[in-house]
Amino acid sequence: MRDADDVGLSLESWLVANESTASIEVSLDGRTWSAIGVPPPADEWLMINVDLSPYAGQIVHVRLQFEAVRPRPGRAADIWGIRDVRVTRR
Questions:
Q1: For residues 15 and 6, what is the distance between their CA atoms, to the nearest angstrom?
Q2: CA nearest 88: which of 37, 51, 43, 45?
Q3: Measured on CA atoms in the order 87, 6, 65, 16, is the torsion positive or negative?
């Protein structure tokens, strides 16, 4: 969507995390990444919307980063479920 000036990224997120973290990141060169969204922990699916309009007219790389921390003994592992990822004109 190179010609779009009001673009967004939407996804459904289900983050169950005691110590792990998740972020939505963008890069213009595929090497240097900047966080543009941080999904909150939730007990159910949440819709996350991120504004990509600051990058209008540019090719951007998007990644979903999950920094998992090993669970303490006796605790369940942290998880991040992602579904319905879309880049849309708004």
A1: 27
A2: 51
A3: negative
In DSSP notation, 4-42 reads -SSEEEEEEEEEE-SS-EEEEEEESSSSS-EEEE-PPP-
User: Model pTM?
Assistant: 0.85
Q: How far apart are the C-alpha atoms of 53 and 15, rounded to whole Å?
A: 26
Give the max Cα distance, the chain: 51
pLDDT digits (tens, 9 = 90+) for 37-79: 999 999 999 999 999 999 988 999 999 999 998 888 888 889 9
What's the DSSP call for residue 54?
Answer: G
CB 62 within 8 A of CB 11: no
Which amino acid makes up residue 62?
V
